[in-house]
Write a structure and sequence with these properties.
heterodimer; A: two-stranded antiparallel sheet; globular; B: alpha/beta; Rossmann fold; 2 domains; 7-stranded mixed beta sheet; 5-stranded parallel beta sheet; 13 helices; 12 strands; disordered N terminus
């Protein structure tokens, strides 16, 4: 029976790996301090949920559409924040997060607001309904591998190297005749696309979504994963996702009295994170710093 | 980033080692503590109850009644039945639905609980419901009010009242007062109000009344004279106000009287319990009936629980959800004891035990949707909010 729990954890880890690696594309590789990533995650989740409940489009189409729709928001966010850098960009994208969160919460005729949307159908691909958690895990694993593979080759390519050059010195890139804005929005839109499909995977797995799943706490979680893993490293993000999502699960088996359980977990969790960052200030596999 | 490198120098190797050792000790100590606390009685004899509580985050204080209520129930039940009860209280981090799903999976696969108490916020209950149904584990929420939970599945119950039942109760009282022609006013900008209007409409027509007219407003509306004039033309004898804004309700009461109508006002929820309402509407709101979800009763078992709560937690007044959580655990344990151990049977027995048990939080007899009926009527009389019928 223990496998039920493990399968669930692996599915969640798979979804967060997609989320973390895609944030790393924007944050680590391109140097865009994007704190609005969770909004992309939420947009993907809501778009696919609404499409699959209100239309009879095939799941794979919805899956791609949700991703593309989210990447439009990635583009728009980049257009809006084009002139901003560093901390200012972080604040603006954080604001974007709040805007989207408020939309989820208050556009009740569409999103049902805080009540959330229950009974989201499980995906069916070519007539095959992914009902059991094990088959869902396989589905998530495939999507996860494809995403990581895509990101890996993208970042290995000259294009990926150029993205890193923008992070290290945007002015030089401009002097060399590169359209840095175009590359930045492309990176942001790609990052948003993957966050969007992570959202789709999440919504159809939990089969219930509400705005609280896309709140500020979640952005802190993903940011922690990326920073603990290290900037500009995919394997760091993957390893960090596993570590950060598994630690709280191990803590569950401590059997503390309920009066101190909540805070105690948080303290231990935070201590472990501090320890990791003390030994490896740039994250587990990080090589760069955002100056 | 030269600055960070400089700072690094302050953390010497010794410091790192010391901190590392401290954390290792905490972790090992924690595990050792956990292992050594492993329950002594045989596993089969224990009744395992999983509890979804909120132990960190924004709602710790608001929802503190849940873990406390279940602890108190555990103590009482162990004394009463002589059986060991193991509570597995998990933190759903202030209504985080992802966290709740993880916990439910753990309850099902590792702890193998007999019943689950929770979730607290409606979103967590809805997120957890599919897992409870799939694994045929009864789940009793002590705090969720969303009407959608009634349809969340046959294994999902709650000791807290559904918004919908309040609406039905309000419609019933209108009918019992001899009213047969109802007019409905709905705030269509609020989901819950639409549900309340729907519930009231269905119940009233089912009882044999007629809905003569329905009018819609939004939360910005301030002048209702046009709608009221229309309503007046269809000559209703009661007006059902499915509206959240207390000021709006007050204004409607006032304008109804101004236009010379004499109807019974009924509000299916409790936001109207606001001193402002009386200030605005004055005498015109006299006689309005509204429905409270809680049950501030003075029964002996309520008083006893209140005393024990004070003794254990040092608070004069019990916070919300203590009684509902207490009842949820009692019902779950009684159902497990009465059953033959099969999960379907636990569910069936839950309906039976709920009929004989006198709940601390009032009536806890489950209907076919796993909901309880216990709204309390209040009335505005002499500019005071008083229990109806007293």
């Amino acid at each position: 029976m223990i496998e039920v729990y493990l399968i669930h954890l692996l599915i969640i880890i798979g979804i967060y790996i997609i989320l973390a690696t895609s944030l790393n594309l924007a944050l680590g590789y391109t140097g865009l301090l994007n704190l609005g990533h969770i909004a992309f995650f939420g947009i993907g989740a809501y778009v696919s949920t609404l499409l699959s409940i209100n239309t009879s489009l095939p799941f794979l189409l919805i899956f791609i559409m949700a991703g593309l729709f989210t990447s439009i928001f990635g583009y728009l966010l980049m257009v809006a924040t084009n002139k901003l850098k560093g901390d200012y960009l972080a604040l603006a994208t954080l604001g974007f997060n709040f805007v989207i969160y408020s939309l989820f919460l208050n556009w009740t005729s569409l999103t049902r607001g805080p009540l959330g949307i229950p009974d989201i159908p499980k995906p069916s691909i070519f007539g095959l309904i992914i009902q059991s958690n094990l088959s869902y895990l396989i589905f998530v694993a495939i999507v996860c591998c494809l995403s990581i593979g895509f990101l890996y080759f993208l970042l290995k390519s000259p294009y990926g190297i150029l993205l890193q050059a923008i992070r290290d010195n945007e002015l030089t890139c401009k002097v060399l005749g590169k359209n840095t804005f175009k590359m930045k929005w492309q990176a942001m839109a790609t990052s948003a696309f993957f966050a969007g499909i992570a959202g789709v995977l999440y919504a159809h797995y939990i089969t219930f979504i509400d705005p609280s799943s896309f709140s500020l706490y979640e952005i802190i979680l993903i940011l922690t994963i990326v920073l603990v893993g290290g900037l500009a490293t995919l394997k760091g993000s993957i390893l960090a996702t596993v570590i950060i999502l598994i630690i709280p699960e191990i803590l569950r088996f401590f059997a503390l009295p309920s009066s101190i359980l909540g805070p105690a977990h948080q303290i231990i969790y935070a201590l472990i994170l501090i320890l990791i960052l003390m030994y490896r200030p740039k994250g587990l596999f990080g090589k760069v710093d955002l100056g | 980033m030269g600055r960070r490198k400089k700072k690094q120098n302050f953390i010497t190797k010794t410091t790192k080692i010391i901190i590392g050792v401290i954390i290792a000790i905490i972790i090992i100590g924690g595990i050792w503590y956990g292992v050594s606390r492993k329950p002594t009685p045989k596993e089969e004899e224990m009744i395992k109850i999983g509890v979804l509580a909120d132990l960190s985050g924004d709602y710790v204080s608001l929802l503190r009644g849940v873990p406390r209520g279940v602890e108190l129930a555990k103590e009482d039940l162990e004394k009463e039945t002589g059986r060991k009860i193991q509570l597995i209280i998990e933190d759903q981090k202030s209504c985080d639905s992802k966290e709740t799903v993880t916990i439910m999976n753990k309850f099902v696969s590792i702890d193998k609980v007999d019943a689950v108490i929770g979730g607290t916020c409606s979103n967590t209950t809805l997120a957890a419901a599919p897992i409870a149904n799939q694994n045929k584990i009864i789940m009793i929420s002590p705090a969720s009010s969303a009407p959608t939970i009634s349809q969340a599945g046959e294994y999902v119950f709650r000791t807290y009242i559904s918004d919908l039942l309040r609406a039905k109760e309000a419609a019933k009282i209108a009918y019992e007062l001899g009213k047969r022609r109802m007019a409905i006013f709905t705030d269509v900008s609020n989901d819950a109000m639409i549900e309340l209007a729907k519930g009231g409409r269905e119940k009233f027509t089912e009882l044999g009344g007629v809905i003569v007219v329905e009018e819609e407003i939004t939360k910005e509306s301030k002048d209702f004279r046009t709608q009221i004039a229309k309503i007046k033309n269809s000559s209703p004898d009661c007006l059902y106000l499915s509206i959240t804004g207390p000021n709006q309700i007050a204004l409607i009461a006032k304008q109804v009287k101004e236009l010379g109508m004499d109807v019974q006002l009924i509000v299916p929820h409790e936001t109207v319990e606001d001193p402002n309402v009386i200030q605005i509407a004055g005498k015109t709101i006299e006689g309005l009936i509204y429905v409270m979800p809680s049950n501030p009763n003075e029964t002996p078992n309520y008083q006893e629980l209140k005393r024990r709560y004070k003794e254990k937690y040092g608070e004069e007044e019990m916070p919300s959800y203590v009684t509902e959580s207490y009842d949820a655990v009692v019902l779950a344990v009684k159902a497990v004891l009465a059953s033959n151990g099969k999960r379907e049977d636990i569910k069936n027995k839950l309906f039976e035990v709920s009929k004989t048990y006198q709940g601390v939080s009032g009536n806890v007899v489950f209907d076919e949707n796993g909901d309880v009926t216990k709204p309390v009527m209040f009335k505005i009389e002499n500019s005071q909010f008083v229990p109806y019928g007293e």
